[in-house]
Structures are given as structure tokens and as C-alpha cells.
Amino acid sequence: SSRVVEIQSQMSERAVELLGLPEDRPCLLLDVGCGSGLSGDYISEAGHYWIGMDISPAMLDVAVEREVEGDLLLADVGHGIPFRPGMFDGCISISAVQWLCNADKKSHSPPKRLYRFFSTLYTALARGSRAVLQLYPENSEQLELITAQAMRAGFTGGMVVDYPNSAKAKKFFLCLFVGTSGMLPKGLGTECANEELHQAKFTNERTRFRNVKGKSVKKSRDWILEKKERRRRQGKEVRADTKYTGRKRRPHF
After folding, report:
1. Chosen domain end from 129, 161, 178
2. What is the pLDDT of residue 252?
3. Which CA distances in Å does 89 have to 51, 57, 85, 93, 165?
4. Which domain CATH number covers 168?
5. In the chain, N or C: fewer CB atoms in 10 Å?
């Protein structure tokens, strides 16, 4: 419907804006999950070139019929981005990356597919460029999973949330930097929002327990107490905490 087309082109416009492209020259962008090429239309209008990847032959057929400007590639991005290093000046993706969280086949491991996608995307992007991925996460675990794999692959950056206080207009843009950590752009409609919302930092769980020297304090008392608390919340049987919890035992002679 025309409403869908309108929302799609608004999100494409916002994604390209968040890329912060140079204004003095045309750039080559990768459109991940390009579908029928609606986001590509906006890229072309803005004077840039693009290559689109999509897993659906039917959608790409529509793009071909519509005679879009970009080049099209039928591929599953969970298998990786098959382009040479540093080829793209940026990447956008509208409503696609969350699909990598689904295991459609027995052999599919979402973390592995996400890592393969992000690590090969990182390589295909020029240093100093960005990837802006608009996505519809099902829950915070999905956001954590996606963000953690992006950071593992070398990206910096994080989530930009537009209109965090609106049920309808709220949009998530994962804004990733290659080789330079820029300032994360502000989400739209966050002026009146409470501060922690556009500070929506999704950290990789493992980095939480680090002592001052950066060593992991896994097995520390705090770590053990938190793990026991998590187990209790899951309804598992856990021993009561005592003053001995997390203490080192003396060596045996």
C-alpha cells in the first residue's frame, strides 16, 4: 500500500541521513535486504549509487520490473557479504537484519549467521564509513544479540532510537562505525524523553564484570551472587548465600 511505501521511504531517508555521507561526491552504498528497491530509489534520488542484496527472487523481480538504478544480487546475507574489501562508502538496511535472528533451518545458528554477516560487512566497508540498519527487534534479547555480534566483528557505535516515547513512530537504527568511533547521532523526538532512553546502550553481557585493570572478575563474589540470583529467577534450586560464598579455599597440603 502507499502507506507502506511512504514509511519505507521515510526510513530510507533517515538511514541515509544517519550515514553522514560527504556532500561533494557520489558514494557507492550497499542496501541489505533491498526488496523491490524502494530504499534504492531514495539513494538514487540523493545522487548516490547502490548495489542491493536480497534473499527473495520475487522481490528482486519486482525491482527489475520497476527498472531501479541499482545493481541487484540474489543472496542470503547470513552467508556473508561477497564484495571486495573497502568497496562501499556506506551500508543501509531497512527492516531486514532482525530476520537473521530466526533459525529457519536446523543448521542455522543465529549468532554465527549474524557474526558472518557483520564481519564480512565490516571488511566490505571503507574505513571511516558507517552502516545504518533499521530493524524491528522482537525483544531486548534480539537487540542484545545483534549488537553484540556487530561489536564482536569490530564495529563501534550503537542504537539510535527515534521517537522513543511513541508506540507507533518509535524506530530503531543500529548505527555502526568502521575504524573510527564517531559520536552516536541523537534520536529524533528525544529532546523531551528521559535521558536514559537515547542512552539506550546495549552492552555485551561479558564486559560488565571487569576490574580496574580490565581483567575479567568472573568467579568473583559479585559475579557469583548475580549468577545465583539469575538462576533463582529462572526457578532453579540454588544454595543460600552465606559469608563463605565466593571465598577462595585454602590450598590442601
Report:
1. 178
2. 74
3. 12, 26, 11, 14, 32
4. 3.40.50.150
5. C
The model's pLDDT over 209-249, given as tens digits with 9 standing for 90+, comes to: 555 555 556 677 877 888 888 788 778 888 888 888 887 77
Whether residue 191 lies inside any domain: the answer is: no
If you search the block for the grid coordinates 557505535, which residue do you land on?
157
Rounded to whole angstroms, how far apart are CA atoms 157 and 172? 13
Q: Same domain for 46 and 120?
A: yes
Amino acid at 246: G
**Pair (67, 140) in one structural domain:** yes
pTM over 0.90: no
With a CB cutoff of 8 Å and minimum separation 6, the contacts of 182 are: 20, 130, 157
Question: For the chain (length 253 residues), average pLDDT per consecutive 10?
Answer: 85 95 94 95 95 96 96 96 97 95 78 95 96 92 93 94 89 92 82 47 48 62 80 83 80 72
Bridge partners for 158 per DSSP: 175
DSSP state of 248: P
Domain containing 221 equals 213-247
Cα three-residue angle 192-196-200, rounded to 5 degrees: 115
CB of 91 closer than 8 Å to CB of 131: yes
Domain count, the chain: 2
Q: Hunting for cell 552492552 — which residue is that? A: 203
